């Protein structure tokens, strides 16, 4: 790999390293760097990338126009990087992915461009995801195993491919090289979810997070720790993490935790507010991204808001987008059936989907909750053997699987019985239309 020119940005700069590590110090160091050298276009672009969620459209455009102008003095690579940031921050993920293919053809192994690789998965297209994974593998081979960033990326790819042992080893290698690599820590959490590491995983995550409570993934990695607590039966810890770390804005992670708790016959953590969920669904972003809408549906399921779920299923079924009417609509309707005490209807809907549930988006562990719901519905209809077969790959390979054992246990109290939900149910408003 050709080293960048001295005037260009590389992973050697502390601010870039912190941003790549998903550190809470990244934005602060980038601001300082831009203040000290306001004509360094890529630095300004990376600061914009790190803070884009809090910028208005006008400010976002103005900052990147200046960054692009200044990048031209540093050379073609800098201009290409700034353009990639422009596309990514404007959520043009397909165009970002296409641009990265051309960028890596010219500057193979470029670690700074690696910061934009999530665009391939954000496209929501299986072909793009596969192409992105192949591209990571090529860049990893070109950059070499000494690149902690590409090793971290490779660990993430292997985790998503279900190659947990390989992902774990790659994550450990990256963490040896850069102990604060957030992507490597995240990949390790995913690998350990597949392996059912239980308390060993929560202990690692707690140590890692304690070193930087402002880490960009602080909430999400706590959610992973909550899943590991579920795996080994420490339901009090799972609830504690949801209550102490996840706030009103974290609807998806809170709902995903609570729905799992309910499926396993456990008391949930503090609730999401039904009115807030309805407000989000009614807003411009409510149906913009399929995985976001799915998470809102889980929040409604936790509230046993059957009428709202049925209305949302109708909305999804009326969508022109195939993933919405072919996949999301039946999944949401199945959630409605579970909350209504109709597990056989849920079984029929979810069994018919099979592998299509991948089109809901998110990552493996996030989509696993659909399989959890089907397993619970199968048990509730007396089809224990089918449920056990569905989860066999988990119970046979995970060291801790108390959660799966509970999913496979017959219950006398349905998921939505008042005894299980009185701690978090509130009076319903009118259903979503």
Q: Assign a percent range to the helix content.
A: 55-70%
> How many runs of DSSP E, i.e. beta strands?
0
Q: What's the end-to-end separation, in Å?
A: 55 Å
Radius of gyration: 22 Å
Number of helices: 25
Low-confidence stretches: 1-6, 417-433
Question: In percent terms, what proportion of residues is strand?
Answer: under 5%
Q: Describe the main β-sheet briefly.
A: none
Helix- and strand-based class? Answer: mainly alpha
Shape: globular
Order of helices and strands: HHHHHHHHHHHHHHHHHHHHHHHHH
Mean pLDDT: 92
Structural features, described:
This protein has 433 residues and is an all-alpha fold. The chain is built from 25 helices and no strands. Helix 1 runs antiparallel to helix 2 (26-36) and helix 4 runs antiparallel to helix 5. Residues 1-6 and 417-433 have low confidence and may be disordered.
Question: Summarize this, please?
Answer:
The protein is mainly α and 433 residues long. Helices cover 66% and strands 0% of the residues.
């Amino acid at each position: 790999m050709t080293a960048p020119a001295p005037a260009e940005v590389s992973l050697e700069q502390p601010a870039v390293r912190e941003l790549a590590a998903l550190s809470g110090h990244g934005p602060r160091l980038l601001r300082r760097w831009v203040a000290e050298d306001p004509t360094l276009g890529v630095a300004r672009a990376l600061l914009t990338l790190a803070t884009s969620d809090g910028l208005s459209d006008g400010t976002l455009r103005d900052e990147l126009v200046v960054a692009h102008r200044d990048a031209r003095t540093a050379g073609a690579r800098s201009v290409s990087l700034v353009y990639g940031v422009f596309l990514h921050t404007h959520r043009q993920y397909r165009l970002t992915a296409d641009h990265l293919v051309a960028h890596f053809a010219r500057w193979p192994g470029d670690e700074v461009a690696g910061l934009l690789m999530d665009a391939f998965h954000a496209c929501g297209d299986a072909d793009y995801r596969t192409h992105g994974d192949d591209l990571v593998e090529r860049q990893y081979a070109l950059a070499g195993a000494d690149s902690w960033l590409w090793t971290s990326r490779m660990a993430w790819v292997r985790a998503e491919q279900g190659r947990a042992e390989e992902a774990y080893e790659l994550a450990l290698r990256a963490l040896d090289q850069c102990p604060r690599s957030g992507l490597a820590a995240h990949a390790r959490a995913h690998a350990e979810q597949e392996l059912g590491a239980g308390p060993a995983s929560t202990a690692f995550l707690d140590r890692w997070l304690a070193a930087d409570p402002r880490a960009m993934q602080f909430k999400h990695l706590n959610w992973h720790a909550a899943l590991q607590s579920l795996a080994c039966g420490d339901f009090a810890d799972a609830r504690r993490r949801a209550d102490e770390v996840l706030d009103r804005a974290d609807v998806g992670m809170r709902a995903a935790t609570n729905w799992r708790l309910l499926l396993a016959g456990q008391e949930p953590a503090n609730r999401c507010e039904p009115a807030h969920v309805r407000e989000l669904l009614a807003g411009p972003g409510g149906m913009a991204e399929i995985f976001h809408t799915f998470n809102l549906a889980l929040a409604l399921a936790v509230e046993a808001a059957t009428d709202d779920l049925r209305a949302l299923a109708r909305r999804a079924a009326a969508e022109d987008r195939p993933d919405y009417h072919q996949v999301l609509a039946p999944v949401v309707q199945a959630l409605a059936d579970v909350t209504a005490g109709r597990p056989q209807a849920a079984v029929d809907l979810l069994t018919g989907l099979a592998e299509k549930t991948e089109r809901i988006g998110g990552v493996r562990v996030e989509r696993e909750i659909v399989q959890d719901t089907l397993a619970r519905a199968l048990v509730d209809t007396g089809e224990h053997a089918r449920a056990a077969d569905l989860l066999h790959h988990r119970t046979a390979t995970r060291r801790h699987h108390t959660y799966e054992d509970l999913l496979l246990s017959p219950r006398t109290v349905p998921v939505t019985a008042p005894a299980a939900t009185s701690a978090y149910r509130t009076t319903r408003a009118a259903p979503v239309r």
